């Protein structure tokens, strides 16, 4: 089955535009985003001059993925502070822009706390704004470092679980440099395996309805010169049945205290398939994605997205007719079920890999210990 699927993307240009950057032109500081809704067709920058523009970019998924949402949220607070807006109001709007990825609220809180502490200490709004920006920059830097450490731990685990090498890894959604200050979470592990000459193939789930796998992961895999093959989400079952998957690597938007993992919708069915076919199901996420305040999977708020994302497809250059500005693929008025995420219970997760090491088996005790250890570092 192998070679008929061999495919390496044509697009090998290095990604020059980072997913996000802070700039200070003479007109005033801005947060510049690579607009992920336009990829892979165009690399277009989106310049946010205030927190409300960033809230809109978060809702529309121009900027997305748990770790990057945290970094963006922190810079958003800094942007509000530096530009003299009401910081508490901006922080509340940013933290509430999307509910499932805990990193967003964590990043916002961190910058806001730095702002409040500096304001209380100095009474000076400029110093408080500088403190918020310093907190955002620190978070950005830490995420870059965490990404490299997750990649190393994840590759170690893959090699341990699959001693033969030549890994065929299935991934879902997008978890690379487009979601991180560094090379990402699950994708960074696959990339490390590729660089070590031990990745035989990356199977990329297209990830309906917004196609983060097809549009973004395939884009990143092509640029990294990885051997990858795209599949519809529905095709994963037959791929497992054919014995073509050695491991599943995915990211996470929130990990509850009991080890339940919320990630892009379609992750849970992959975990069920992986268990049935005795394939390791590995979650890669920074410790900041573990939320000790969310008790279990049922307590995770799952974002519900508009139905038109399912009932329509959007294609540039084509006349639009649907309510969401796309081409209808279902009868007008069709109701759609469109949760952005699903929850995988801990018993289906082989390991959670973080920058502090891997947890396996996944238990509440092991996660609590990991969080405590990480706080001491
Ligand atoms: O809706 P999205 O595109 O923001 O969803 C992103 C995911 O589900 C990712 O898998 C998750 O954030 C982990 S990214 C490291």
Commentary on this structure:
This protein has 377 residues and is an alpha/beta fold. It has eleven helices and 16 strands. It has helices at 51-59, 66-82, 87-95, 102-122, 125-161, 186-195, 212-223, 236-241, 267-276, 308-311, 364-376; strands spanning 20-23, 30-34, 45-48, 167-171, 199-205, 228-231, 247-250, 254-256, 261-264, 281-284, 290-291, 312-313, 327-328, 341-344, 351-354, 357-359. The strands form four sheets. A seven-stranded mixed sheet has the order 6-5-4-7-10-15-16, with helices on both faces. A hairpin with a 2-residue loop joins strand 15 (351-354) and strand 16 (357-359). Helix 3 packs antiparallel against helix 4. It is globular and about 65 Å long. Residues 1-9 have low confidence and may be disordered. The chain binds 5-S-methyl-1-O-phosphono-5-thio-D-ribulose. Residues 61, 64-67, 101, 173, 175, 179, 184-185, 212, 251-253, 263-264, 340 line the site of 5-S-methyl-1-O-phosphono-5-thio-D-ribulose (MRU).
């Amino acid at each position: 089955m192998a070679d008929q699927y061999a495919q390496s993307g044509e697009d090998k240009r290095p990604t020059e535009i980072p997913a996000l950057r802070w700039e200070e032109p003479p007109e005033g500081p801005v947060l510049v985003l690579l607009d992920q809704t336009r990829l892979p067709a165009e690399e277009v920058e989106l310049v946010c001059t205030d927190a409300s523009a960033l809230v809109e970019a978060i809702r529309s998924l121009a900027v997305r993925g748990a770790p990057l949402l945290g970094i963006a949220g922190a810079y958003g607070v800094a942007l509000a502070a530096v530009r003299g807006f009401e910081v508490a109001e901006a922080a509340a709007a940013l933290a509430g822009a999307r509910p499932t990825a805990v990193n967003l609220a964590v990043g916002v809180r961190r910058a806001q706390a730095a702002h409040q502490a500096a304001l209380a200490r100095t009474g000076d709004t400029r110093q408080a704004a500088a403190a918020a920006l310093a907190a955002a920059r620190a978070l950005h830097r830490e995420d870059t470092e965490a990404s490299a450490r997750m990649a190393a731990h994840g590759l170690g685990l893959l090699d341990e679980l699959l001693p033969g090498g030549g890994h065929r890894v299935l991934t879902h959604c997008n978890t690379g440099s487009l979601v991180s200050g560094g090379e990402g979470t699950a994708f960074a592990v696959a990339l490390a395996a590729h660089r070590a000459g031990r990745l035989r193939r990356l199977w990329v789930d297209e990830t309906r309805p917004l196609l983060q796998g097809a549009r973004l992961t395939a884009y990143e895999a092509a640029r990294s010169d990885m051997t990858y093959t795209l599949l519809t989400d529905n095709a994963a079952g037959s791929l497992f049945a054919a014995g073509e998957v050695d491991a599943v690597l995915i990211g996470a938007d929130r990990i509850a205290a009991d080890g339940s993992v919320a990630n892009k919708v379609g992750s849970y069915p992959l975990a069920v398939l992986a268990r049935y076919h005795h394939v390791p199901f590995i979650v890669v996420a920074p410790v900041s994605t573990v939320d000790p305040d969310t008790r279990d999977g049922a307590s995770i708020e799952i974002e519900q997205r508009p139905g038109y994302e399912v009932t329509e497809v959007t294609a540039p250059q084509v006349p639009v007719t649907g309510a969401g500005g796309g081409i209808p693929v279902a009868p007008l008025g069709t109701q759609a079920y469109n949760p952005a995420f699903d929850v995988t219970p801990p018993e289906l997760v082989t390991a959670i890999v973080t920058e502090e090491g891997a947890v396996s088996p996944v238990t509440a005790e092991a996660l609590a210990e990991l969080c405590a250890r990480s706080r001491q570092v």
